[in-house]
Amino acid sequence: MSSYFNAVIFCTKRKKEKISSLYILKTSLCVYLLYKIFSIRRKYMMPFKKHHCQLGLGSDSMLLKKPGLWANLYRSMRKMCQVAQYHPDTYDHFRSYPAVVAERQRQLYEGDKNLIHPLSLVSLCWHTIMAFVNLMHMFISTLRLFFVLTPPRTQTVHAIDKVLLAFHALCFLDILFNFNIGYTEKEYSHIVMKRRKIVCHYLRRWFLLDLASCLPVAFVLLYLDLKDTQCLLFAHILPLLRTPRLYTALIDVKVFTKIFTRSYIWYGMMRHAVLFVMTAHWCTCFVYLPPVLCYYWYGKIPWKYNRFLKDPDRDLWNIDLQNRYRKGMFIVLSSFFGTGFSMFRASEPEEIVIHALIILYSAMFMVYTLVLLLKVYMTTYSSTVRYHELMNQVEEYMTYKQFPAPLKKRVRAFYNYRYQELYYREETALDCLSEELRNEITLHTCHKLVNKVALFEGVSASVVGSVLGCLRPEVFLPNDPVVRAGDIGECMYFIANGTVAVYSLKGVEVCHLEDGAHFGEVALLMRDSKRVATVVAVEITQLYRLDAEDFRHFLLTHDVYERIESLASKRMHETVLLDEAFRRDRLSEKHQGEIPHLGSSN
User: Fold this and answer.
1) HEC per residue, 530-551
2) What is the C-alpha separation between 557 and 555, in angstroms, rounded?
3) Please, which residues have CB within 8 angstroms of residue 369's CB and are 6 or more apart in sequence?
4) Where is the Cyclic nucleotide-binding domain (predicted)?
5) Other beta carbons within 10 Å of 88
6) Cβ-based neighbours of 81, under 8 Å, separated by 6 or more
7) How far apart are CA 425 and CA 135, in angstroms?
8) What spatial distance separates the first Cα and last Cα of the chain, rounded to whole Å?
9) Does an H or E element contain 475, and which?
10) Multiple choice CATH, 459-585, 2.60.120.10, 3.90.550.10, 3.20.20.60, 3.40.1190.20
């Protein structure tokens, strides 16, 4: 990504005297945004290694290559209009890359060659732009109707009218675009790429609203200096017909959010934030609905309205637009958050009804917000909540069985160490995965253990992964015996975390084993398979158990067998020496104790 910013900096140095710092910042942000959009395959959509084919199968776009600059540009544009594997929704419709290629072929041979696929990069970029355009169009059109007021018979073209005219032009381009882009039949999960069906589908759904909302009738009337306020009212209402486009704008915002994250929580939060901003703005406009309607219909504003403005004349055109908007927004936010209902001073039935509707909607919206936040919380902390539910059941069980206090403490310590306050069912999560992926996950989760255990040095990754796949985690509390001397050895252990103490047959403490060590292999190598030592946990210790069958299957068929045999004989020798030394010490102590006894008897 540094190359993109280096290019921007190089260009700005060449024109340093002409380009302002604000322009540099905007350019950098635009380049960064484009980089993020076109790098979604590498970082978000396809987080695995890409296959570099060496078979030379040709282009997957199915488009013929022709010589010439314009031919190459035309081919590049047509490729961008085909279904793209980098679109966030592509693999929701097509399960494999061959299916994507087949869809490109279908578009080329069955549909119109000049149509745009709804899952193409052109569609992604245009719908992202139109999401912003639609939202701004809804915002500015209502702002123009309710807040840009001048004394009657003096209406002229306002700066906001010029901005709105530019958005009208973009919306008209969107109409042309919609006649040339396919659509998805959700019932059949089929993408329609036939022009006749596309045109009929668009004419039945959005065409009339889009056309009526993008006609600059108000701008023409103001430009021609027509003073009929009633005609201006209807002309300003036409852009408000684009309000239902909020539905498609939210869908486009969701698709754009998928570029950066696959978390549905972020989708919901982004959608909710857009809804809050837009509806709060619309409610702010509706606060002034009665006086604005009177202004456009009768050419004047009755003095009985707008008592909350605390203006003696209460003429909206004599009050600054920002002050009116700030006051209306303050009243609306007070309704949303349930504070200061008395600030909206009104005595007329129309204003009271409108304020009541705003309060009703804001209450419903805040309830919906609360439900959404609870859902986000339960989703984010579901494993923690389930852990505490499990612990409540354990506490009830221990109370019912009348566990003593020390035993309760040990049980709580076990669950706390085992789950770390996050309860999940690992078997359920891993059952649907392939064996190769499960081994890879196991290798990743146990990579610290692999690095610590010297036994695995020089062993191939496949063998290590197979061994790790056979390991079973076990947790032992302090002073818990892991193995006892004389028992039949059916497994060996690897220490992931913690410390254990090793005792000989005579009860002599031989050594301590810590992270990365292993024990129990001696009994698996001996013919009688009996343990030669007792192992006790010194602290809370997490071990991985390897059963005898898996031990013989994986380890005894590789070079690691020699290491195990050498280490086992060394440990056997040390244990025997310690037992012998302990036996001699006990005999000497016993002999020294007998000498004074004989002397006293004489």
Assistant:
1) ECCCEEEECCCEEEEEEEHHHH
2) 5
3) 272, 276
4) 455-555
5) 19
6) 115, 116, 117, 120, 122, 123
7) 43
8) 98
9) strand 472-476
10) 2.60.120.10
Q: Where are the domains of the chain?
A: 1-38, 62-245, 384-419, 459-585
Pairing label, strands 509-513, 500-503: antiparallel
Residue 196 pLDDT greater than 60, yes or no: yes
Which token pair is 500? 């254990």
CB 235 within 8 A of CB 221: yes
Query: Is 396 exposed, middle or buried, given 0-12, 13-18 or 19+ CB atoms closer than 10 A?
Result: exposed
User: For the segment 123-155, what is each residue's pLDDT rounded down to a tens digit?
Assistant: 999 999 999 999 999 999 999 998 888 777 777
State pLDDT tens for residues 303-334: 776 666 665 555 667 778 888 888 888 888 88
Give CA–CA dist 389/400, Å, rounded.
17
Cα atoms found within 13 Å of the Cα of residue 54, Cβ hemisphere only:
0
Please give the structure tokens belonging to residue 84: 């793209």
Which amino acid, one-letter code, is at 132?
Answer: F
298 close to 230: Cβ distance less than 8 angstroms: no
> How do 481-483 and 534-537 pair as beta strands?
antiparallel
Angle ∠(449,455,459) on CA atoms, nearest 5: 95
Please state, in angstroms and rounded to a whole number, the distance separating the CA atoms of residues 223 and 341: 42
Tokens of 323: 């002050």
Residue-wise pLDDT tens digits, 212-228 = 999 999 899 888 887 77
The SS3 call for residue 482 is strand
Count of other CB atoms within 10 angstroms of residue 102:
13
Alpha carbon 333 to its chain centroid, in Å, reads 30
Give the chain's mean pLDDT. Answer: 79
- CB-count exposure of residue 479 (10 Å: 0-12, 13-18, 19+): exposed
- pLDDT tens per residue, range 258-277: 888 888 888 889 999 999 99
Quote the pLDDT of residue 582. 61
Strand ordering across the sheet containing 472-476: 472-476, 541-547, 491-497, 518-519
Q: Extract the tokens encoding 112.
A: 């119109």
Q: Which two tokens stand for residue 226?
A: 């027509």
SS3 label, residue 150: coil
Distance CA 397, CA 410 (A): 14
Neighbours of 438 (CB within 10 A): 16
Q: Is the pLDDT of residue 301 over 80?
A: no
State how far the Cα of 489 lies from the Cα of 483, in Å rounded to an integer. 8
Residue 265 CB coordination number (10 Å): 13
CB 544 within 8 A of CB 473: yes
Residue 166 CA to residue 137 CA, distance in Å, equals 10
CA angle 39, 41, 43 (to 5 degrees): 70
Of 228, 235, 212, 227, the C-alpha closest to 161 is 235
The residues near 526 (Cβ < 8 Å, ≥ 6 apart) are: 489, 532
Residues 40-49: contacts with CB under 8 Å, at least 24 apart: 40/86, 40/88, 40/259, 41/85, 41/86, 44/259, 44/260, 44/261, 44/262, 45/85, 45/86, 45/88, 45/90, 45/91, 46/85
Q: What does the CA dihedral 522, 528, 532, 538 come to, rounded to 10 degrees?
A: 70
pTM of the model: 0.70
